[in-house]
From TrEMBL, chains A, C, E:
Species, as recorded: Mytilinidion resinicola
Intracellular or extracellular location(s): Mitochondrion inner membrane
Domain named Tim10-like: residues: 17-79
Family indicated by similarity: Belongs to the small Tim family.
One matching Pfam family: zf-Tim10_DDP
UniProt keyword Chaperone, yes or no: yes
Signal peptide (UniProt feature, chain positions): none
Protein name: Mitochondrial import inner membrane translocase subunit
Molecular function per GO: metal ion binding
Assembly with partners or alone: Heterohexamer; composed of 3 copies of TIM9 and 3 copies of TIM10, named soluble 70 kDa complex. Associates directly with the TIM22 complex, whose core is composed of TIM22 and TIM54. Interacts with the transmembrane regions of multi-pass transmembrane proteins in transit.
GO cellular component: a single term: mitochondrial inner membrane
GO biological process: protein insertion into mitochondrial inner membrane; protein transport
Automatic annotation (TrEMBL), chains B, D, F:
Record's bilayer topology term: Peripheral membrane protein
Keywords: Chaperone, Disulfide bond, Membrane, Metal-binding, Mitochondrion, Mitochondrion inner membrane, Protein transport, Translocation, Transport, Zinc
Family of the protein in this entry: Belongs to the small Tim family.
Residue span, Tim10-like domain: 11-73
GO biological process: protein transport
Primary role: Mitochondrial intermembrane chaperone that participates in the import and insertion of some multi-pass transmembrane proteins into the mitochondrial inner membrane. Also required for the transfer of beta-barrel precursors from the TOM complex to the sorting and assembly machinery (SAM complex) of the outer membrane. Acts as a chaperone-like protein that protects the hydrophobic precursors from aggregation and guide them through the mitochondrial intermembrane space.
First and last residue of the signal peptide: none
GO annotations of cellular component type: mitochondrial inner membrane
UniProt name for this protein: Mitochondrial import inner membrane translocase subunit
Compartment(s) of residence: Mitochondrion inner membrane
Coiled coil: none
Highest taxon of source: Eukaryota
Assembly and oligomerization: Heterohexamer.
């Protein structure tokens, strides 16, 4: 709604806050996707006991590791494509 | 960010946290309902269904705590290593 | 954006409206999750006829009942945990 | 809420309703597409697929109406009984 | 937040922008649903090669066609219902 | 829309595009993780998992490009034919 008020100070405040917000949103979106994927991959679906057993615990830990690794690989790949296509201008240079 | 901007960001974060808490709650309801309730012969939960739901909630809460801890660790490690390659 | 205007009256108006809005959002989110779960559990996937048959209808009714019951159980449980952990301060005392 | 606040809430609710209507519509399209269209031998819908889609939309709309009625009843009953235990 | 400022010009500007925005949101939501459905229906899940093979390509093209057709059918049907119920007032006359 | 309104719409669209780009990215991560990672015997990706992820990302990007082209064509054709029947 910045056009209603005009003036640079507010706009730039708003922009800075929006950027900080976007980064937090990104991280929290990743976390909820990770929770979703790793619960599906690692938790026994029959819920015979309320506690995580050894197997589930180890699986969850490794799942986080691998999820991060996939994240890095995909990010590297998309940057590679971007610089191949555009010779500059990374999609992540928010 | 100056202090005023930080206060604004803070207040937006609080709204987000409330929203996320509600989301965790609703996901628990939905996931544990989907996993534990498979018969509609009765109008009320059977005791078997009810205890399945309880164990399901317990396990998912523990799982989320654990995932959160690992996530923080990895995030910190990655920040130290210079962030995602693209940043 | 309250910081742009300051002044308590608007803030408190905005806060009251936001709270009413949050409650409505919560209920409508629950309803759409219920629709999703109960349709999957109760509707025949082959769509041989356009009307709900007897079995589907009864199933949908019971599904709503059970979904509410699960809702209550989970809510009670999380409050129990919260008060056990914090000795006070319910997560639902919005 | 005072009248002005109610008007504001009202106007936000109208936007939400429009959004939710669009969401119901999009869910119908996606669910019925996913359930009824399983062959891509042709570029156009076969008459069999088309009538499956029609029945699917019909059934889902009736199902949602029924679920909405039960939901309202339960919600009203629960509000009378004092709301969700935590409120 | 129009009530904080009042005055028709802003309201109507805001409303016009909101409408344009809603149409764009609608189209982009449809596209992401289509991507989701058509990827699931058409892509081999084992990812043996990085390129789309002939079968996948043809499937994707037809999938878009059929998705649009379903969209039109559902829209026609819901309008039919709406005018049957209300004798006027289309749900799509945004 | 007048020029000022167009500028506002433009700036909202840019935010949306950034959000949508992030969404495409996150969907790729999640889909390719779900499809390619099925064993948790090790803490790191095996080379087999890694190359599966690479092919998966490639294929999905190509698929989205193709779907986007067809979508645009159909959308244009439909706009010329007078839009969705209800509009």
């Amino acid at each position: 709604m910045s056009f209603l008020f005009g003036g640079r100070p507010q706009i730039s405040s708003e922009a800075k806050i929006a950027q900080a917000e976007a980064e937090i949103d990104m991280v929290s979106d990743m976390f909820s996707r990770l929770v979703n994927s790793c619960s599906k991959k690692c938790l026994d679906r029959d819920y015979r006991e309320p506690d995580l057993n050894k197997g589930e615990s180890v699986c969850l830990d490794r799942c986080v590791s691998k999820f991060f690794e996939v994240n890095v690989k995909v990010s590297e790949k998309m940057q590679g494509e971007a610089s191949a296509n555009a010779a500059g201008g990374s999609p992540f240079g928010i | 960010l100056n202090p005023q901007e930080q206060r604004e960001l803070q207040s937006r974060m609080e709204k987000k946290q409330m929203k996320e808490f509600m989301n965790v709650y609703s996901n628990l309801v939905q996931n544990c309902f989907n996993s534990c309730i498979n018969s509609f012969e009765t109008k009320s939960l059977t005791s078997r269904e009810e205890s399945c739901v309880m164990r399901c909630v317990d396990k998912h809460l523990k799982s989320q705590t654990r995932l959160g801890e690992r996530f923080q660790e990895q995030n910190a490690a990655m920040a130290q290593a210079g962030g995602l390659p693209g940043r």
